[in-house]
Amino acid sequence: MTESLPDFTWLPDLALRTLGGAVVWANDESFAEKENLISQGPSTYQPASFGHKGQVYDGWETRRRREAGHDTAIIRLGVPGVIRGVVVDTAWFKGNYPPAVSLDALEVDGYPTAEQLAADQNWTPLIARSRAYGDTRNNFEVDSQSRWTHVRLNIYPDGGVARLRVHGEGLPDKRFFGVGPLDLAALENGGLVLDCSNRFYSSPQNLIFPGYAQVMGDGWETARRRDDANDWVRFRLAGPGRINLAEIDTSYFIGNSPGAAALTGFRADGTAVELLARTDLLPDTRHKFLIDADDVLTEVRLDIYPDGGLARLRLFGELA
Questions:
Q1: b/e for 15-37, b at 16 or more Cβ within 10 A?
Q2: Residue-wise pLDDT tens digits, 26-37
Q3: Least trusted range by pLDDT, from 51-60, 102-111, 182-191, 201-210
Q4: How far is it, in rounded angstroms, from Cα 5 to Cα 179?
Q5: What is the tens place of the pLDDT at every residue in 53-89?
Q6: Structural domains in the chain plus CATH codes
Q7: Is residue 279 within 8 Å of 288, Cβ to Cβ?
Q8: Model pTM?
C-alpha cells in the first residue's frame, strides 16, 4: 500500500544540502555523523556492516545516555523561509530511535558561529515534545508565519534519526534584491512550484533549485504519456515582475528530454500572456530565450511536449 503523505511534503525541503543547508552543530555524534540528516534521497541500510563505531547507519546517531538531558542538532536552512511542516524520519532505526522529539527555530542575521547558535537564548518552539516511532516518517505540521534561518532538532533522550525534512516556502532577504540579475522563479528568491501535471520520477521543485544539476535525478521527469495531452508546471514568481530572459535546461536528459516547450505568463488578474511560443528543444542543452514582453506577471506556466525531463528553469527579470 502506498503511504499517504501530508500536503506539506509537496513543498520543497528548505534544509537540503543541495540547497546549501548545513548541520552546523550537534552535542554528540558518537555512532553516525550529523551531516547525514540533510542528505538528499532516502536513507539506505546494509545489515551487518560494521565500522569502528559499530553498525554503520545512514543518519545521525548519538551514544546511549547515562545522565539526564537530551541530544540536539542545529541545522542552518539552505533557504530561509516559512516552515509548513517537518518530517523526522527514523528509517532503519528500530531498537535505537528516540521515543520523543521536538523542534525549535531561530531567525538570525549574518553568519553566527556554531557556538553562538548553541548558546543563543532566542529559540522559538515550533513542535512541542512529541512521541516518535522507530523506522517511521514522523510527520509534524507547523503553524507559524514567521521567517526562520535555523532549526534545532531535539531528541529525547538519545538515539538515531535518518533524515530531517523541513518543508516550506522560501522567504529571502530583500536587501539583496536589485543589485544584480534576479531569477524570479528561483526558490531562494521566493519562487515556488504551485502545481504540475505529473511527478512520477522526480519533483518539479528541483527545477528552481540553485546551481546546475549534476545528474538526471536532480531535475524533474514525468512518466511516458500514452495520450494526446502534454505535461506542465506552474510557478509562483518571487513577486510581481517583468521577465526578459528564460533558460530552459535539459542537461543530462538525453533520450528523455521534451521535444518542445512553451512559456505562458499570468498577470495578477489571471490574464494570460504568451512569453515563448512552442519551441523545439535539444537534449542535454541549456537553451536561452529572450522574452519580448513588458507585462507585470505573478505566475508562469511551463508546458513541455509531450513529456520528459528538465534540469532547471530560470526566469530572469526585475521586480515591478
A1: bbbbbbbbbbbbeebebbbbebb
A2: 999 988 899 999
A3: 51-60
A4: 40
A5: 766 678 999 999 999 999 999 999 999 999 999 999 9
A6: 7-170 (2.60.120.260), 175-319 (2.60.120.260)
A7: no
A8: 0.82
